[in-house]
From TrEMBL:
Keywords: Cell membrane, G-protein coupled receptor, Glycoprotein, Membrane, Receptor, Transducer, Transmembrane, Transmembrane helix. This is G-protein coupled receptors family 1 profile domain-containing protein. Pfam families: 7tm_1 (PF00001). SMART domains: 7TM_GPCR_Srsx. It comes from Desmophyllum pertusum. The lineage of its organism: Eukaryota, Metazoa, Cnidaria, Anthozoa, Hexacorallia.
Amino acid sequence: MFNNNTTILEENQTDHATFSSRNKLCSLLKQVRTGNDITFADFRALCAFISFVNAILAVIAILGNSVIIAAFHRFDSLRTPSNLFLLGLSFCDLLVGLVTQPIFAAEIAFVAANSDTACALKDLYVIFLFSFSFSSMMHVCLTSVERSIAIFYPFRHQHYVTKNNVVRSFVVFWISWTLLTIFTRREHGGGVIGYSRVGFGTFSALVVLVINIRLWIEARRHSRQIQNSLPIYSTSEEGNRETRARTKAARDTKAAKTILLIIGFMILCNLPLIATFIARKFYGVRGRVVTLLWFASNTIALLPAILNSIIYFWRKREFRISVKRMFGWQNAVGIQR
């Protein structure tokens, strides 16, 4: 008798825990079913539009980053250790277009259909959002650190920052990052992932901003020193040395500006998501309108997957020449296969 009661009690506790977990996981769908701030017909129409926009953006992200990766594969001159960090960022953005954004578009569609399938898709979306989209910021941090070593410790940079070491660091990073994301989601739920995204994202952005502003100032200082030290009359060897120094200073300045642009767009695109997350978690804002704002802010947060490839093409001349040559738009010079 006692054993039977114990078994029944354990089953009830298990059912209650399962229901609580399920209820917490489907909180977004629950808001849709109980909200009355707008009609469900209007909500469903806006969800369909946001889902369609995400599907289109996913295709653009796949195409843009596939072009960047194909250029890396075709032209050996692009495969420098510094550019490999940008290649890692392109892979992150490609996975956003291939996995994260389609799952998010499907989640929105199932929410509009008032289907419980949205709950499972929401769980997958949180995992892949943190794995791929947020790891893009980590790659920008790694790129900033690499540029710092190249400018302040050039001899160490040549010795330690090699292609093999960069690839090894990517493998270790991806394995540890993916395992950490899955463990965090299973053990603590999406809330901890949201908090860590806000906190760690803010910290990473500040680190990247400080590093690249310092790099930009240092590169400009080197450029001014080179200009002031130029002799009126110089030998051919001295002139070549000064030309190389000026070219390196200009390249370092442009690289710092490029990273600042990338991190600047990342920060701007994540601000609506952070604001919506804070409103939902700390101020208890609920309803269908807030759900739509949540979907829209997530869509904006995924935009860097497209913007990054545009920045590469705009800011890096070797990428422009490689892509144009790859598509036969011009007989580009200076790029080796």
